[in-house]
Design brief:
The protein is of the alpha+beta class. The protein is built from 32 helices and 26 strands. It folds into 7 domains: about 60 residues, no CATH class; about 100 residues, PAS domain (Beta-Lactamase, 2-Layer Sandwich); about 110 residues, Beta-Lactamase (2-Layer Sandwich); about 190 residues, 2-Layer Sandwich (Heat Shock Protein 90), CATH 3.30.565; about 120 residues, Response regulator (Rossmann fold); about 80 residues, HPT domain (Four Helix Bundle (Hemerythrin (Met), subunit A), Up-down Bundle); about 100 residues, Up-down Bundle (Four Helix Bundle (Hemerythrin (Met), subunit A)), CATH 1.20.120.160. A 6-stranded antiparallel β-sheet has the order 6-5-10-9-8-7, sandwiched between helices. Its main location: membrane.
């Protein structure tokens, strides 16, 4: 609670300065008048009146005494009445005897004589004597002399009454004008101004009226207002924004300081300056002299950073939510086709399908699912390249009709499956050829039409192309644009959904995602590709009424010289449709084709496909062998791998072209970037085929370059349906006993019942352990060229033999080798070892043979492993070749186990790690996956030089060896029991 003095001071401070000065001056003047009055400088009118009235009373008393003594009472009566009548100041006169009787009177004496004892200016009495004794008294009643409220009793009263308000008004007016005309800048000394101008915070001195007396240089710079415009003005007149109070509370800091007569700290004010909102921390303190010192600390950057941080946090949260939703959608999108691939593959592998038509349907489903997975991977790769700014587009001749027809023909089957009409037409004539990137344009339209089919349950999807005038809002330099509309009769979208439909990982509605699927990448990629092509992608939609996605590309003036009419487009579309149906599968002519690849599995696969299509195939392992083979006999076509030892494909092609050979050369490479394609073409190649090899595309390119003229026929796929190892069909269903995703067996996608394909795959697996070992050695020696070379081989060869899981991991290893990142390369190599350990080759068995149950490959702890029961080999032991491989492994294992115990006893951990590494890779490869995990843990323990852990794993390995049963060992002469080992 504030003291009375503080309350008084607070109230006093609220009075304007000019009024306080005016009151002070009036007070001084009044004091001077009072002093003058007390000193007798003013005449005392009241005193003079009293004197005159006293004389009148004395005169009347003398006259009355004389007349009363002579008995002239009547004359006295007449005299008194005459006096009352003539003098208006006398109200009445009375002569009373000593005994109180009224002897004679004039006027209403008895009524007006109220205070007989009063001797003031209105009631006066004089004693009357006769013969020396008081006979009576003369009473005279006068008019009051004080005037209003008795002010006439004091001489200066009326003067002060008039003078005080008049002077107060005049002084106030005068001071107001005078103060306004004063220069407030003179209120602060020059040396003080210079000192205050050095402050890093804005500073203002205010008077009691909150007028600015001084503003330092920092504040004028912040507010961008000259000091001359601030000084003398009310500071509250500026456009301050109160940021730390509610709407109803608009008290500025200096106003609050004046109200409470105390300091105000840490108030937040804002002001818009040149389109930017500045934020200040304001402190205001009352100072002696009835003013205020106010400081302004600029915290704009801090506040902007807070806002930016909050926006970044919200954006990160939104991105995280979008990422989570995307991952969930992506998981669903990947698992769905994977389920189809694995499920139908397993059905075919088990021989559960006997009808060839049904088998073909299953194979088609597997192919479509694989194509869908490839689309997903391509979308992710495209988005990553776009985000990294590495997406390249070409500027080549683009035939619009071919692009549109290709999209329509590709997606016609999907539209038919959904009972939708897929219409294609031209609304106007369009350029026959424009300069653009046909691949990326096809990708954009493919995404749009695919989406339209997905989200349309009934009705139609239309692709409509037209040439229109460019809209000014589009910002195109050309006057005309090619407009391609994709119109559907699907579910449509709200404006809110349209606003976020082009964001990465976002979809219009999560409910539609669950119903229709999708990852939310297609439209984002399409929009960015459209912009990369110099155009734009927009959408118009209404809920329940379908959507229209519009691609607009600018057209050069020279492109409009050759136009295709709608009727010409329709004729061409029908003709190409008939040609596509007639040319689905082509049998190759019996011409020589040279396949050049350092990967034996790649050579054998391509040789197998081309041979069964009718071609005559020769092979070479490197560019030098290819040149020698071509010199001996010129082939009709060369399939050239571009990365090979001895002599790579680029150099070999350049030498062939330099020597005058004009035969077609198709480049084979694991790299699929635009720059790689151009590099191959610059070397002299005629075409380009990326790995993993697409068989259909391989046959199409081969047929094109071999100038095939044979009739279309039904190409018989080499993927015949056979009998696989006996596994219950119920294992396809999820259950608690199923292995985790990371431990699930990996089966090749090629038909292992076909001896040719099986031989190709087994050849790859025979070379895989040595390649992985070479990579590990190269990483340790930091020989990244070798790492890159082997990773490149694995990237192409793995997918070619039907082990696609190696392709993305090998690509990562290839990138790590380029970046020379040792730790990353080692981690990726570990993943490759894990993948190699999970490979299982299905056994082709006789009708009476049954495959032994697969060993549990879980990577549980040592305590969780089973030490009971026989350990069976998963390879077909009735096959002599496999039997010899397994027997050789068992012999080497029996030789190495004692050596490993000896190495442990002698603390030779490096040698122990080498043997553990061999066992980790070899055990699973020859059909004993239960050896992989303990060998891996032994490898880790030996690298950590932990003898106890090494001994535990080695004991378990010896125990596992004692339980191993090798097929027909009884007739082989090989004991199942290893030699006794002590460690």
């Amino acid at each position: 609670m504030r003291s009375p003095l503080k309350r008084f001071t607070s109230c006093y401070n609220r009075i304007p300065v000019r009024l306080r000065l005016s009151f002070g001056l009036v007070g001084l003047m009044t004091g001077s008048l009072l002093v003058a009055s007390a000193a007798g400088f003013f005449p005392n009118e009241q005193r003079e009146i009293l004197r005159s009235r006293s004389r009148i009373c004395e005169t009347l008393a003398i006259s009355g005494t004389a007349m009363a003594s002579t008995g002239q009472i009547e004359s006295l009566q007449v005299t008194l009445e005459s006096v009352v009548h003539r003098d208006p100041q006398i109200l009445s006169i009375g002569l009373k005897s000593v005994n109180g009787g009224l002897v004679v009177s004039a006027g209403p004496h008895e009524e007006v004589w109220l205070h007989p004892d009063s001797q003031d200016a209105t009631h006066m009495s004089v004693p009357v004597y006769r013969q020396g004794k008081q006979w009576g008294e003369m009473q005279i009643r006068f008019e009051p002399t004080g005037g209003l409220w008795g002010l006439n009793h004091w001489g200066p009263a009326w003067l002060l009454i008039v003078l005080i308000p008049a002077c107060l008004i005049q002084f106030s007016f005068f001071l107001r004008k005078t103060l306004q005309s004063l220069d407030p800048s003179g209120a602060v000394p020059t040396h003080v101004e210079k000192a205050l101008d050095t402050f890093t915070v804005g500073l203002v001195l205010l008077n009691a009226d909150q007028r600015t007396l001084f503003a330092n240089k920092r504040l004028t710079q912040l507010l961008d207002i000259p000091a001359s415009e601030l000084v003398g003005k009310y500071i509250s007149a500026s456009d301050w924004i109160i940021a730390d109070r509610d709407e109803g509370e608009k008290t500025l800091p200096w106003e609050e300081a004046r109200q409470i007569n105390d300091s105000v700290h840490d108030r937040i004010l804002q002001m818009d300056v040149k389109g930017r909102r500045l934020t200040f921390t304001v402190n205001c303190t009352p100072i002696t002299g009835q003013g205020f010192l106010t400081t302004f600390d600029d915290i704009t950057l801090i506040e902007e950073n807070k806002v930016a941080l909050a926006q970044a946090r919200d954006a990160a949260q939104h991105a995280n939510e979008a990422k989570s939703e995307f991952l969930a959608n992506m998981s669903h999108e990947i698992r769905t086709p994977l389920n189809a691939v694995l499920g139908f593959t397993d059905v075919l592998r088990r021989g559960l399908v006997t009808d060839s038509d049904e088998a073909v349907d299953h194979l088609n489903m597997i192919h479509r699912s694989g194509a869908h997975l490839l689309e997903l991977i391509n979308d992710i790769l495209d988005l990553s390249k776009i985000e990294a700014g590495r997406m390249e587009v070409e500027s080549i001749d683009t035939y619009i009709d071919a692009v549109i027809m290709d999209v329509a023909n590709t997606l016609k089957v999907r539209a038919d499956e959904n009972d939708l009409e897929l219409n294609v037409r031209l609304e106007t004539a369009i350029p026959r050829v424009i300069t653009s990137d046909p691949t990326r344009l096809r990708q954009v339209i493919m995404n749009l039409v695919g989406n339209a089919i997905k989200f349309t349950e009934s009705g139609s999807v239309s692709i409509i192309a037209a040439m229109r005038q460019s809209e000014s809002s589009a910002g195109f330099e050309s006057s005309k644009v090619l407009r391609i509309d994709v119109i559907d009769t699907g579910i449509g979208m709200t404006p809110e959904q349209q606003a976020r439909i082009f964001e990465s990982f976002s979809q219009a509605d999560s409910t539609t995602t669950r119903k229709f699927g999708g990852t939310g990448l297609g439209l984002s990629i399409s929009q960015r590709l459209s912009e990369s092509l110099g155009g734009r992608l927009t959408v118009e939609s209404k809920p329940g009424m379908g959507s229209t996605f519009r691609v607009e590309l600018p057209i050069d003036d020279e492109d409009t010289s050759d136009l295709m009419s709608p009727s010409e487009f329709e004729d061409l579309r029908r003709r190409r449709t008939n040609e596509a149906v007639a040319a689905k599968l082509i049998r190759l002519p019996a011409k020589r084709v040279l396949v050049v690849d350092d990967g034996e599995s790649n050579r054998r696969l391509i040789e197998l496909v081309l041979t069964r299509a009718g071609a005559l195939v020769a092979t070479a392992a490197n560019g030098l062998e290819a040149i020698e083979s071509i010199a001996e006999e010129t082939p009709a076509l060369v399939l050239m791998d571009m990365q090979m030892p001895v002599l790579d494909g680029y150099t070999a092609t350049e030498r062939l072209r330099a020597a005058g050979f004009t035969i077609p050369i198709i480049a084979l490479t694991g790299n699929a970037m635009v720059g790689d394609r151009e590099k191959c073409m610059d070397a002299g190649c005629n075409d380009f085929l990326s790995k993993p090899v697409n068989i259909d595309l391989l046959l199409q390119l081969a047929a094109t370059h071999l100038d095939s003229a044979s009739e279309p026929h039904e190409f018989v796929s080499p993927m015949s349906v056979g009998t696989a190892d006996a596994i219950e069909f119920s294992s396809l269903l999820p259950s608690a006993s199923m292995p985790s995703k990371t431990d699930r067996p990996i089966f090749p996608t090629l038909p292992m019942d076909d001896p040719d394909f099986r031989e190709i795959t087994m050849g790859f697996l025979d070379r895989l352990p040595s390649r992985l070992t070479n990579i590990e050695i190269a990483i340790a020696a930091m020989d990244f060229e070798t790492v890159h070379s082997d990773a490149h081989w694995l990237k192409g060869a793995g997918g070619t033999v039907g082990l696609d899981v190696f392709t993305p991991v090998a690509k990562q290893l290839e990138e790590a080798a380029k970046a020379r990142e040792t730790e990353l390369a080692s981690e990726i190599l570990r993943q490759l070892y894990e993948l190699s350990d999970r490979i299982v080759i299905p056994a082709t068995q006789t009708p009476h043979a049954t495959a032994p149950p697969a060993e549990d490959r879980s990577s549980g702890s040592l305590d969780e492993r089973s030490d009971e029961g026989p350990v069976l080999c998963t390879l077909p032991m009735d096959d002599p070749d496999f039997y010899e491989i397994v027997i050789g492994f068992v012999r080497r294992l029996d030789e190495r186990l004692p050596k490993m115990a000896e190495e442990l006893n002698e603390a030779r951990f490096e040698d122990l790690a080498t043997n553990a590494h061999w066992l980790k890779g070899a055990g699973g490869t020859v059909g004993f996956p239960s050896l992989t995990q303990p060998a891996s843990e032994l490898l880790i323990a030996s690298k950590r030089r932990d003898p106890d852990a090494c001994r535990t794993q080695l004991d378990y390995l010896r125990s596992t060896r004692q339980r191993m049963v090798v097929g027909n060992a009884a007739t082989s002469g090989i004991t199942d029991k290893p030699p006794t080992v002590s460690c």
